[in-house]
Task: structure prediction
Amino acid sequence: MAVLIGPLCFCQFVYLSIFTTTLYSLAETSLINSPQKLTMNSQNFQHILSWEAGNNTTVPTYYHVQYIALSSKKEWKDAEECSNTTRLFCNLTKEYDDYENSYIALLKSFTEHGVFNLSSPDFSPYRATYLGPPIVNLTACPGCINVTVKLPAVYLKEKSLIDIYKKLDYSTTVESSDRKEKIPFRNETSEECFSYVIRSLRLNTNYCVSVAVTASLNSHSIPSALKCIITKSTTRKGDGTIPILSGGLVSFVLGVLLIGLYKGGFICLKSGPWPKVLETTNTLHCSVHVPDPEIVCSVQIIHKEIIKKEWEYCDDDDDDDSGSDSENSDEYTKRGILGRIVNSHAKSNTFVQQSIDCASAESSSQAIKLLDSDAENSEEDQSVIKENESTSKVLFHPSSEVNHSSTSDLRNSACFNINLSTVMLRDPEKTWDESTTLVTHQEDEVDLQDYCAFEEFESKPFTNIDYSKRPDCHNSSHEWQKPSVSDESDTSDSEYIRR
Amino acid sequence: MATKTQGRLCLWQLCQLLLFSAGVMSLDCNLLHHQQSKFNRYSLQLLQKTGRSFPLECLGDLTAFQFPEKVLKHKFPQHAQMAAHEILQQLFGIFSRNLLQTRWEKGDVELFRNGLHLQTKHLEKCLSTKGGRPILRLKRYFQRIKDFLEKKKYSTCAWETVRLEAQRCFLYMDKLTVMMKN
Result:
């Protein structure tokens, strides 16, 4: 029995040993000669597939690489440089030219024992290639670093990183060597070469800068090697001189310009003579009371005949007007009375004719002749005038008040000139004193050339100053000479009359 | 144990979704391209995560769907927005189809679809006009994909091919997003 068992065991042992040796040899051949690991190293669209050879280097192995583009082609294609090669890498840059596509690489290893296939996972160059490192240049400035970045070139025909991704993000890491502070800095660019300044850094400190570039769908990047630079401590001398020089230059140019303008007459430092019209108005409300010696003397005697004519004409006009205007008929009759009164004394008076331009809109070109009595008449004349004054005052004061309130808009239509040599100032509250001396009227060289101007001032400076004119029948009669004025009898008329 | 982890996962996904939707709803049209860029990255990650590398056995089903690249040559931001909107809408339509045969992570697919829907709504808000030739081209392209799925009866390999194509779509979306800014 024991003898029987002995040879059986031996047989089993032999079988077992044979089995194990075959198994071992099989395992050895498969493990040793097949490539271990496939890795794709892709940087800036340069794709290099590499693998590890089996442990048994004595067995000659030939490699053959195939690839397939997943989105367009169905068939496996051979990589040109990687057929029957013994190298442990394969450059697939040319093969993976469509960067938007996905590829699968297949490595075939040929040995004596057979063919072994190993495939890589699908690879998208657009998303998986490593970007960088960018070329970085640093320039130091006080408290800041100027960083100039140039994007790396791409292993694609006539393409750049910007052509492929349109826009790239770059992140900068600034590290100080002593304090270990890290300042991240992120931005985006669409230019191949760009520069920016990192500010608020400490002065005179060693900083190391590294830049990494990423795309929105590709976060694989290789940052640039740390480059160190010491920030500047003080400002350069040239920095100060340039602003000073430029400031001086600007001020010099300005000075020259100003002098030129002054010489050319564009700038007037000395005020010119006051315009005549303005002078008149200026002195009106201030210096009405200041008497000035009157110079009106020589023209007195010349126009007696003319005056007579005018008086006649005046009477005619008066009649016409009184007939046409119903509202003011009373007034006109009053005026008529006055006119007659005046007329009676006309011959005994000496008159000066003054020609006045009226600049009102209605009668712009019309010259109105205003008669004015001479201030320095004889004693007889004065007495006569005093009588007239009393009559006119008594008669016309109330009517003028009425007109003043009712026909204010008509005031604008008429224009008068008044020789203020005949103006007398008085308090309206006081009763008119017949015996008051006439204003001698040496005061009035001031000639109101334009009644329009007078109108404006009338409300302000003259409302307070009630002025009374020496009653002058010739003056009032002149009012009736002019039809337009007599039609629109208003305050000015009445005032004249009151005077 | 398994149900617990699943519950946690769902909760986490829900939180993510809420955060994402809040971001989408509150954004202004001027910042659309920023948001779109984030969305592209997020969607692409989800698409990659749902499945593994393209299976070699499905190589036979590979089809060239030919994305109309003319769509990317329009210069106006409005056109880019319109194209992006159309792509998202169509992708949502496709990934809402019969997914039974796929071995994808269901949670990931759900998130992907929700993202698509929200982003489509957001783009709609900022769109002034609709239609046009580029949209027609895109419609034809997506019709080819739908026809392919129907023809292959929504098989695993057909879906893998479509997933690959969807990933490619997001590369184009990235370009459109850059155009949106201009």
Notes: Chain A touches chain B at residues 68, 70-74, 100-102, 104, 119, 121-122, 124, 126-127, 165-167, 216-217 (CB under 8 Å). Residues 26-31, 312-413, 434-499 of chain A have pLDDT under 50 and may be disordered. The CA atoms of residues 48 and 91 of chain A lie 4 Å apart.
